[in-house]
Design brief:
Elements: E1 6-13, H1 18-22, E2 28-35, E3 37-40, E4 47-50, E5 65-68, E6 73-76, E7 80-86, E8 92-98, E9 106-107, E10 133-135, E11 139-143, E12 151-153, E13 166-174, E14 189-190, E15 196-197, E16 208-215
Antiparallel strand pairs: 1-2, 2-12, 3-11, 4-10, 5-6, 7-8, 7-13, 9-11, 13-16, 14-15
Amino acid sequence: MLMSQYVIRDENLPANFCSVIEGNVTPGVRRIIRFTVMTPNIGDADLYIGDPDLTFDEAGNSDLYEFHPCHGHYHFKHYATYELIDAKTGKIWKAAKRGFCMLDTDPNPAWYGEPPREHNFRSCGRPGIPGNQGISHGWTDTYRFFLGGQYFVLDGGDGQPVVPAGEYLVRITVNPAFAPAKKGGCARVTDPAGTCRQFAESDYTNNVATVRVSIPDHPGRDGVGPLAGTAHEKTEKAEHGN
């Protein structure tokens, strides 16, 4: 999905977009790369989390979630890492941690060869309003290219260096490893390498997808890439349209 759904283009990002507010992006016409990410559950059981409210302690802290006022619902911590990497030098130009509302949005692609079971997770939840988050076996959590946060700013409008034209890799890592908090120890799972994870897995090696992209000097409003010419969204949607 990442390979077939990306576009590099010049796009107007209004000041009221959550991704502009949270990412400290200067509003206006920005050069960006947008892309779609699918996170399928190909395991043998549901990935169950349940109601995010129940993960918070009396002090209002949770190892799994944080509340995003702009979106109006909970986001899962350490869900995925997005990176834009120079294909020649290996330099990481962009690196972003993404937290999402984890839901069943689509059946797994047919190439996995297994029909989906019943989908169970359909509600993000918010303070005082119960949610039910997770990914059912045979289902995927999809973040389409037009959603908030599904892009990198290339022209310096995010306060970072301008990304020059050239060959790059977009790398997505799901359930990424991260360092323990300063207080020491992993709150949930320690993997065989001694780093922290949010979930234990039988195989951590199949969590990465990498796609090569060519960033031109002047992509224009129609853009370049498999999704070139697709309509620009007038109103940026929060995760899953919520």
